[in-house]
Each structure stands twice: as structure tokens, then as C-alpha cells.
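User: Hi! Is it possible to get a structure for several chains at once, not just one? Here's what I have:
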Amino acid sequence: MSTTTIAGHEVDVNEEGFLTRPDQWSEELAPELAALIGLDLTDKHWELIRFLRTDHAAMGETPTLRRVSTQTGTPVKELFGLFPGKPAKKMAYVSGLPKPKGCV
Amino acid sequence: MSTTTKHLVVLGAGTAGTMVVNKLRKRLPATEWSITVVDKDDIHDYQPGYLFIPFRMNKPGQIRKSKRPYLHDDVEVVMAEVERVDAPASTVHLVGGRTLHYDQLVIASGTTPRPDQTPGMLGEQWHREVGEFYTFEGAVALRAQLDAFTGGRLVMHITELPIKCPVAPLEFVFLADDYLKGKGVREATEIVFVTPLDGAFTKPMASKRLGKLLTQRNITVETDFMIESVDQDAKVIRSYDEREVPYDQLVTVPLNMGADFVAASGLGDELNYVPVDKHTCRSTQYDDIWALGDASNIPTSKAGSVAHFSVDVFVENFQDAVAGRPLSHSFDGHANCFIESGGGKALLLDFNYETEPMGGTFPLPKVGPMSLLKESRANHLGKLAFRHVYWNALLPGRPLGLPADMQTAGKVPV
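Assistant: Yes, the chains can be modeled jointly so their relative placement is included. Here is the combined structure:
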């Protein structure tokens, strides 16, 4: 656990660079976080990021890829196009949320 | 029956549903409450035993029983498929036309593997080269496949989380490593573990302590693999990002989903799990509906130990609810699970929503006899013995002497 400065804001991050406090995230941070993993945000990215933030606030958990796909009507294949390789992890990263995890 | 009798209806007579009706029947006077449990068949499998079938560590007959003898005599048992719940009308419609009215409803209809949800999974080779061990039939079929296996690529694959007993696929590869050594074909076999997550273990502590178990056994891990399809002709699984993993024997965990009637009733999330308060298992939509065991969306393992601990909390809260009192108990997400690691040893994990698995001993501080987070013979024997505890104490609702809340005495953070 350490702190780093992103877009002029001091934030707590874990060893993988994920924000550990969702409340430290703001929309200003998203493009910076995206740039760190080589992404340029489009309107479609923003729609998904906003869904992740709203859903996390309501459910207390980072939504799974399937949930993002069904709730936003975005085919999984398209999510792979927008967040290449690891969409679930990358969407969580840019949205300042914990990565999806298993039980152990 | 007096006209003031109230009705508790429980959908599902598996691990959670059986414990619920047996425990509540002892607490609720028959003059005040009738209890009805609905299930589509009379078969009760000891599901942790499925994992052992392919390796001949359990015989099919040891893990399959009739449901009825495990249900309290004063509970009405209805064998029928549920069509849908009409929550605003407080009724359950059964296939065949019968309707049940309820004052309180418990949904305990579990989770089911759904190979139909992945293109190509259900083909000619289903239960042959494309195997699984999350059903009785699948486990028995996989036993025959492993008998005939002479080497090649053995691929253990998880479609998507959550799944029932999330450590079972790891146990499978550990046991397979051992089994294939015994058969003399381990050298000729490549064992691959394919996961949609970014590692076989995703929690830092488990990953640190347990990651070496895979490398020691020469098991390779393919991470971040979201399956798009199975190609049974080419014998590969393909991911959305166009990776291919070839197999000679695939052992898959299909997508797990809650019951279809949950979706038809408008009570489910995208995987047909019932959204509930994670500390009380009460529906977030209706105060007279509860979901227990694998049927709910609580963010912990779908496992018998969770069903057991959460039912203990539920039984107290249910009595509060029907007496008009505030709910007095809170479930902490307590789970414990044995992980078979092969060679007659097993690990034991104990954790909850907030606390990662700790080291130490279980269930008694310092005494054990089982050790947490370490491989030991005692843990393995504990896992084997649990089958008897399940049939003889857990299902009948007898106290096991294990508190529902996670205890931290005798445990050490690692």
C-alpha cells in the first residue's frame, strides 16, 4: 500500500496500482489512469466507467464482466475491443475500483 | 389446522433448505406455523464428494441418498418444479398448476452448471473429452475418462465466477497430479489450469502462501481467459481475445446460474441470484422473502460451510422478523474450506467478508487438531470425515459446536 499523485491528486494505491479508496476517484482521474494503461477514452468508455461507478456504489462490489455486458447492453466482444485483453480488470482500474477477485 | 396458522414455504431441499426446515420446525410451534418444502426430485447428493469420484476416493453410492429421511416428519414435502413466484401476491406457482400461499418464503434453489451458455460446450464429446465434476453424472463419466487417460494435455477450466466451491478446480489439479503419478502417466501429461481471473489465487495472502503449490507440481496457469467457445473438433477452447488452449481432456466448470424460476419471477440478478442484504440474507425487494445457500448474491463462496453458518444466523433473525422485532443477528460471511492438495494431505482455510485467511489451528486455539493454511494429514482426514458429519449432524440440524461467527483466538495473521 502506498500513495501516489495522479492528475494532481494524492491517492492511495495497492501494489498493482489500483486505487484502494473508491471515494478518492473523480472523473478527472480517469483519463490519467487510462493513459497509464495505454487507453484513450471515448464516449463509450465513459458510459461504461459511469455504469461501474454507479453500480459499485449501489451494490458494494465491482460488477463482473457479465454484469457490465448485460446491464449496459454491450456485447462482451466489444468490451474486449474497448479494454483490450483484460476488460474486467482494466475497467475497474480506470474507474478507481477494486479488481474483480475470486475467493482465495 | 386453525385459520390463524401461518405458512413458511421453502423452495429447495438441498443443503440450505434441509437445514432451514429442520431447524425451524424445532423452533416454530406447529399450531402457529406450517412448513412446506418444494423440490423437483427426491435425490440429495453430498456435493463435496463429486470431486472425489473421478479419483475413486468416494464411491457414487456414498454420496447419494433420498431426501425425505433427512427432512423433519412434520414438514410437508412437495415434489414439483417451481414455475414462478408471484411476490406481490405472496404465492408460488408450481408446474402442473398447484399454487402455494406463503407468509414467509425462503428461496434455497441453489446454483446449477449451465454448459448450454457456452457455444460448443454441449456437443458429441460432452461428458467425454469435455468433462466436468459438478454433477453426479459428470463425476462418474469423468472417472471413466481418467481411467482411460494415457497422457496428453489435461486442461482444468473455469468459465466465469462465481462458481460453487471455488477451490474445487484447484483441488482437482492437485489430486490429478497425484492420481496420474500413481498411474505412471504424469510424465506424459501436461496439466494446465485456465482461469478468467488474473491468477489461480487472487487474494495476496493466499497467493503468497499457496502459489508455490502449483509450481511445485509443475502445473501451468493460463490467466485472464474469458472463454468464447469450445471447438470439439479442433480440441481447443477459444477466448474472446482470440487465444486458444488445446486439450486432450478438458475438465470445465460451466457457467453457474441460479434457478430459472428466479428470473421468471423478477427476483434475480444477471445470473439469477436473489439480491439480499449480505448480513441477513433477506431480499432487498421484499421483506417476506429470504434467500439462503447458493441461491443468493452474497459476496462470498458458494459453499456448504457458508450455507451452514448463514442458516444459523437466519434462524435467529427469522424468529425476530415474525415476532415483529428488529433482526438481532448479523452474518459475517464466515466460510471455511478444505483444499485437498494431493498425497493424502489437505489445507484448511477460515475467512469471512472482512478477514483474509489466517494461520493457526482449527477449531480449537493451539490444540487444533487441524492446521490453517498449511498442508497436513489431519486436514485431509477431517475432510474425509466430514461426509459423516454432513449426513448425521449437519442436515438434521444438530449443533456442530462451531460458532457461526469467525473466531480469531488461536489464529495468526500471516
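The first strand of chain A starts at residue 2 and ends at 6. The beta strands of chain A are 2-6, 9-13.

User: Great, thank you!
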